[in-house]
Design goal:
Blueprint (H helix, E strand, L loop, with lengths): L5 E7 L6 H8 L4 E6 L6 H5 L5 E5 L5 H8 L7 E4 L4 E3 L1 H11 L8 E10 L2 E2 L9 E7 L6 E2 L6 E2 L4 E3 L7 E3 L5 H21 L6 H18 L6 H38 L1
Parallel strand pairs: 1-2, 1-4, 2-3, 6-11, 6-12
Antiparallel strand pairs: 4-8, 5-12, 6-7, 6-8, 9-10
Helix pairs in contact: 5-7, 6-7
């Protein structure tokens, strides 16, 4: 039986209210590698209370950039990627340990299930805030990041799946209304910048059909309605996030046009 060691990778910035629960759920690993975006709260003090923690600091741009910069620096060849607002349940811990104990691992990464916890309850049907993520990977896969300001993607072609339905990450992104609204606005701005640089421009179609389509997909097709009012709220939030990014993109287009008109007149 193999005795492969595991590093957990966590990007953090000013998360002192939630980081301890995350750390408690993964303190069993050999190394907890933290990339801190120069927090000015108690985040680092809490992290330093764990003996297997290694901390480096790097100016925060986005989660993908932090991961691609920090992952090459971890100690071990296998990495479990987790965010500060996520928790690893016991079944997932057991599955990961079983994977790493195999004599031979034929893949370079594993898809891990993610369930959203919203207003104190796990959501079993809506997939808006998570379904599966490439989270258990070989260290060398950091080269495969496709970086964006929002939703960077780690591409691992030779991959497997942790199929145990009871093994998953618990993702709790919405804890405070005001904090979450600010986060939505920030993500909308980042997504709009990505789209603008790609030559995408918003129009009437995007404002009318994209938010409605998002809601229909997650509420009806992906069965968000089965989670009751929580499912309804999450699907409405999903639609709002789509509207916000195209609204920001429209703002960028408008002010760019106005600026060009002023320049031309001069």
């Amino acid at each position: 039986m193999s005795t492969r060691k595991l590093s957990v990778f966590i990007p953090v910035q000013n998360v002192d209210e939630i980081i301890e629960d995350c750390l408690e759920s993964i303190k069993w690993v050999d190394e907890i590698f933290i990339v801190d975006g120069f927090s000015d709260d108690k985040t680092l003090d809490i992290c330093k209370g764990y003996p297997n923690v290694k901390i480096v600091q790097h100016k925060y741009e986005n989660s993908g950039a932090q991961r691609s910069w920090g992952m090459p620096q971890v100690t071990h060849d296998w990495i479990f990627i987790i965010d500060s607002d996520e928790r690893c349940n016991m079944e997932l811990r057991n599955e990961i340990q079983a994977v790493l104990s195999q004599d031979k691992i034929s893949v370079d990464g594993y898809w891990v299930s993610i369930k959203t916890k919203f207003l104190g309850k796990l959501q079993n049907h809506d997939r808006y805030l998570g379904h599966r993520g490439m989270r258990l990977v070989r260290k060398e896969t950091y080269k495969n990041f496709i970086l964006k300001r929002v939703h960077s993607k780690l591409v691992v072609k030779n991959s497997g799946v942790i199929g145990n339905k009871k093994a998953f990450l618990i993702h709790e992104p919405i804890r405070d209304f005001s904090v979450h609204l600010k986060k939505m606005i920030r993500y909308a701005e980042w997504a709009a910048k990505d789209m603008y640089e790609q030559g995408i421009r918003s129009n009437l179609f995007h404002f009318i059909f994209r938010p409605i389509g998002k809601f229909v997909i997650h509420y009806f097709i992906k069965r968000g309605f089965l989670d009751g009012i929580r499912g309804l709220l999450l699907c409405k939030i999903a639609a709002l996030s789509i509207f916000l990014k195209y609204y920001k993109l429209f703002h960028m287009q408008h002010y760019k046009t106005v600026k060009n008109e002023h320049t031309t007149k001069k």
